[in-house]
Specification:
With about 230 residues, the protein is an alpha/beta fold. It is built from nine helices and ten strands. A hairpin with a 2-residue loop joins strand 1 and strand 2. Bound molecules: adenosine-5'-triphosphate.
Length: about 230
């Protein structure tokens, strides 16, 4: 589904990714793990065309998207939810969801909205409320819901658990699990909270200083004491 080969990305003299290769399979959750500065956010930004790689390639299905601009990505089925929950707080929940269809040039239908409200009932109950009234966890649900409005086949999620209580993170991860199972969505999940991420993910890739240091099934990574202590912090 998503195939990364030899990806190297720099910010001026700073090399953020170095020869990164891995595959994220269709209908699976792949976690990208690693400490601060490991290159996780840069990886997502490079995949979604916000940053240009120095070398290497990114394939989404049959398409080489290595040099495709970010604006063209939604039409190819890629949705990127950046860190920081960018909901528009002055707009209602329903209005925020409508915006999600724009990137793909499609009109969001009542059926689309109902799908999100089924998935996240709390958003349905508050659909006409302005987004500033939502809690952190609810805003995170809204940005995921908004990304789904573009009907992506690949969802890139950057630190969806940031600042959320463990219980809320678990709830959001359980919903993601359902989504992947029901819709065959492919998810690339960046997380600092490696323990939670590996409980959700099928597969994991561990980065350290821009390089891949491990790439394996989630339960293999979670069971590797040395790796956990050295890179995963649990
Ligand atoms: P975090 O969890 O802190 O976001 P990360 O694993 O996502 O970390 P990146 O943000 O991708 O890591 O950063 C990788 C490296 O690139 C770091 O050394 C960082 O300082 C550097 N870097 C990131 N963004 C920029 C930028 N805009 N300009 C210069 N250097 C940058």
């Amino acid at each position: 589904m998503l195939r990364i080969e030899g990806l190297t990305t720099s910010y001026g003299p700073v090399r953020a990714l170095q020869d990164v290769s891995f595959t994220a399979e269709r209908g699976k959750v792949t976690a990208v793990l690693g400490a601060n500065g490991a290159g996780k956010t840069t990886l997502l930004r490079t995949i979604s065309g916000l940053v240009r790689p120095d070398s290497g390639s990114v394939h989404l299905g049959e398409h080489d998207i290595s040099r495709t601009p970010a604006e063209a990505m939604p039409a190819l089925g890629l949705a990127h939810v950046p860190e920081g929950r960018g909901v528009i707080t002055e707009l209602t929940i329903a209005e925020n969801l409508h915006l999600g269809g724009l990137g793909r040039g499609r009109k969001v239908t009542p059926g689309d909205l109902d799908r999100v409200y089924d998935l996240f009932p709390v958003l349905g109950e508050r659909r006409e409320a302005r987004a500033h009234t939502l809690s952190g966890g609810e805003r995170q649900m809204l940005v995921v819901g908004r990304a789904l409005m573009a009907e992506p086949s690949l969802l890139l999620l950057d630190e969806p658990s940031l600042g959320l209580a463990q219980r809320i993170t678990a709830q959001i991860f359980a919903l993601l699990r359902d989504l992947v199972a029901e819709e065959g969505l492919t998810v690339l999940l960046v997380e600092q909270n490696a323990r939670s991420a590996l409980s959700l993910a099928d597969h994991g890739v561990v980065l350290n200083l821009g390089r891949v240091v491990a790439d394996d099934r989630a339960e293999v990574l979670a069971g590797d004491d040395q790796l956990r202590h050295a890179y995963l912090g649990f």
